[in-house]
Amino acid sequence: MMTWASAQHAAAARLGREIPVLCHLIGADGNSVLGIPQDELARTLDVAADSIPATVIGIFRFWRAQT
């Protein structure tokens, strides 16, 4: 069974490096806007947070290549 964190890694490979940032979107009700199950949220946010430095570099390089 695939956990949300492992699904996140697979999605990041397909959708780009925005996923670690988007994982941190939490609604007013305290639930993930992306639908991350509450029991996987803490671990997923830890994994996503660890990925943010590389994410920022990847986004920078993408936009730099656009100019």
From TrEMBL:
It comes from the Bacteria. This is Uncharacterized protein. It comes from [Roseibacterium] beibuensis.
